[in-house]
Design goal:
By secondary structure, the protein is α/β, with parallel strands linked by helices. The protein has helices at about 10-20, 45-50, 70-75, 100-115, 135-150, 155-165; strands spanning about 30-35, 55-60, 80-90, 125-130.
Length: about 160
């Protein structure tokens, strides 16, 4: 796996997230990749937030525009039930095109989910304003409801079956 233009710290977070997904089964396991510039949490708030969402992992990335489609697909293959990408509003993106790029890559990943027979509703994308935890919670609730309605195996189960057979 090659991750270009991603810091080592975030690469290690990505690897630890995918490994941690094999933890005890929660109702829904969601990985949230969010732009670092969203500054969602003040010091110490993230831990309290995660206690109220036990199946959620948060991964800060330098810019949502750095998120590639294969990151989303590999996260699902590692055991996540769903993936949420949070990007800055288009007008407030520090890198000007990052939000647009991330949305195009999200659409590309959704098309691949359809091609391989998975429900494209397993990944979601939202533009939110900086420090908008209410929007984060709303997006998580929406994705959790969607995942509760999704039928069929997840990517993790499909990968396990294909390796066994």
């Amino acid at each position: 796996m090659v991750l270009e233009n991603v810091s080592i710290e975030n690469y290690l977070k990505f690897v630890s997230v995918t490994m941690d997904l094999n933890m005890a089964r929660h109702t829904v396991r969601i990985v949230v990749f969010h732009c670092h510039n969203l500054s969602l949490f003040q010091r110490g708030e993230q831990r309290a937030f995660l206690r109220s969402w036990p199946g959620v992992k948060l991964v800060a990335i330098p810019c949502s525009g750095k998120m590639e489609a294969h990151h989303l697909l590999k996260t699902l293959a590692a055991g996540a039930d769903g993936v949420l990408v949070l990007a800055c509003e288009e007008a407030s993106c520090r890198y000007l095109e990052g939000s647009n790029r991330s949305h195009k890559r999200f659409d590309y990943a959704r098309s691949w989910l359809t091609k391989i027979g998975l429900n494209k509703e397993r990944i979601a994308f939202r533009h939110i304003l900086p420090r908008d935890k209410a929007a984060l919670e709303a997006a998580l609730k929406h994705l959790s409801r969607q995942l509760g309605a999704v039928d069929g195996p997840g990517a993790y189960e499909l990968c396990r079956v294909s390796k066994v057979g």
